[in-house]
Amino acid sequence: MIDLSVASGFVIGLVFGAVDLLSGFCLMSSLRDMWTKSDTRKIRSFATAIAIAIIGTQILAGSGLVNISTSIYLQPSFSAPLIFFGGLLFGLGMVLANGCASRALVLLGKGNLRSLVVITIIGITAQMTLKGLIAPARIAFLDWTRTTPTAVSAPALLSTMGLDDTAARLIATLIASSALLIYAFSDKQFRRAYGQIAAGVIIGLLVVAGWVATGWLAADDFNPIPVASLTFVSPLADSVQYTMLSTGLTLNFGIALVAGVLIGSLVTATLTGRFELEGYTSVTHTGRSMAGAAFMGIGGAMAYGCSIGQGLTGVSTLAMPSFIALIGILCGAAFAIHSRTRLLAFAFR
Q1: How many Å apart are CA 55 and CA 139, to the nearest integer?
Q2: 39 Rama class: left (phi>0) / alpha (psi -120 to 50) / beta
Q3: 3-state secondary structure of 153
Q4: CA 103, CA 107: separation in Å to the nearest integer?
Q5: CA distances for 347 relative to 158, 271, 293, angstroms
Q6: Is the pLDDT score of 345 beyond 70?
Q7: How far is CA 66 from CA 61, 73, 224, in A?
Q8: Cα separation of 209 and 229, whole Å?
């Protein structure tokens, strides 16, 4: 019998891989274009994806179709310093490696062999941080800084002000999604960038599809699986481990998602004539990429997600920790992009 969560993850990954390759959907390249070229089309596409994901996710949660409160993003206690620092490391790493975890996977599908090194290092360092050598330090810091606030999401925060749950969810969803969509479509260039608009809408819907797949379609009281959607750091760690020890492990949504993205990108690159083998151009290039990958693996594990996992999927739940992680990622990326020349000259002189 086919595991519905695995099959769904693979199909969602296929679509993500194709759309990402064709559109260049990536938070790092979006920020770089905005800060160095004054081109905001990609960042507005990312904002559109967040808005669509928020609307769809909150409809699922409000209707009771999917219980997102059991997801990793809405746990009752968390460490804000750990999540922020993890996001900071991830943001720095994605600039050094010239792309986030999901983008590296997509680029591998089009023949970029640098990305094979990047995703392997992300997987290994994430596993080290989650369960290996770095895990005791991470857990100790988590226990030391853990807090249990009265509200862990924007709707829950509004509920503490006297609103009922439905009204609080509706108001939070309308404010967040409207602000994002107004920002996105206030630019004439973006309104004419139909490909970027389509990419944002489709990827936002893929987040919703992930929740449906794990929280409703494959839900089984006798064999429960974690409610999850698009994210790449932990799935890359699981994929590396599964590749080595498949006989002792079980396929899951995340591993299938990774495989789907890789194959979707590969097929699309081949059909469109974009497949081309690429490698590193210098020792400096290699060192920078490897360092960035390690930062992403460690940071993504600390922050419980990447620029997609927290910046898109996590934010779709309107969870406070996800906003903290996203702020950390943006701060890390801003520092790396604006200080890149000096930073690299110091690190690799």
Answers
A1: 34
A2: beta
A3: strand
A4: 6
A5: 46, 40, 15
A6: no
A7: 5, 14, 13
A8: 8
Half-sphere exposure of 40 (CA within 13 A, CB side): 12
- 169: its two tokens: 């969810």
pTM to 2 decimal places = 0.94
Of the CA atoms within 13 Å of residue 193, those in its CB half-sphere come to 23
* Helix axes of 135-145 and 114-130: crossing angle, nearest 10 degrees: 60
Nearest-angstrom CA–CA distance, 201 and 195: 10
For residue 294, give both structure tokens. 């390690």
Q: Which two tokens stand for residue 193?
A: 């960038």
E-state strands within 50-154: none
User: What is the pLDDT, as a whole number, of residue 260?
Assistant: 97
Indicate whether 77 pLDDT > 50.
Answer: yes
Share above pLDDT 90 across residues of the chain, in percent, rounded to a whole number: 86
What pLDDT digit, counting tens, does each position of 120-177 carry? 999 999 999 999 999 999 999 999 999 999 999 999 999 999 899 999 999 999 999 9
Helical pair 233-245 and 283-302, crossing angle rounded to 10 deg: 100
Q: Output the CA–CA distances (angstroms, integers) from residue 150 to 143, 167, 320, in the order listed.
A: 18, 18, 11
What DSSP string describes 243-289? HHHGGGS---HHHHHHHHHHHHHHHHHHHTT----B---SHHHHHHH
Per-residue model confidence as pLDDT tens digits over 194-209: 999 999 999 999 999 9
The candidate with the shortest Cα–Cα distance to 257, out of 270, 242, 271, 279, is: 242
Residues 127, 149: Cα–Cα separation, whole Å = 28
